[in-house]
Specification:
The protein has 155 residues and is α+β, with helices and mostly antiparallel strands. The protein has one domain. Helix content is 28%, strand content 30%. The strands form four sheets. Strands 3-6-7-8 form a four-stranded antiparallel sheet, covered by helices on one side. Strands 1-2 form a two-stranded antiparallel sheet. The chain has a two-stranded antiparallel sheet with strand order 4-5. A hairpin with a 6-residue loop joins strand 9 and strand 10. It is elongated and about 65 Å long.
Amino acid sequence: MCCCGRPTINGQPGYRWNDPNGPTSVRPVNPPDLADGDVMIHDEPGRCGGQDSHSHHYRVVRRHGSLCLLVRHGGGDETIRLSNPVAVVVALACLISTSRYWILNAIYHAHSDAARNAKDLEAQHWRIAAAQKRIKTRKQRGGETVKVWIEPAAE
């Protein structure tokens, strides 16, 4: 649990963990790696302020004509393509660093929640099909591949 006495950005003194009266330290900056050819537009290290987000570091990069949000957190690295790159770059440039960080944090968590919800719905779809014995398989001729599908439910 973050116990910083005031909002603190990674790389700056003032970080406290689990003890509001304990000594302060500096949480190290741990950015996601850039790929060859990436052009960095914004680099926003983890921070706190209203919530503890020290473990999330965001970078906005231009990659092969697309705009991407690079994220590093305790679970690893992720890349999220951002649509409408011209408008997004202009909008993000209008924000101060703290506001930009929390907007990127909201984009990341919305994406993460949507991915989790989609995975859960797909798993539920396959569980129901399995319970109803509607999952079918067929080995493809001349190879080791297997075609797997769900038969439509009887009406």
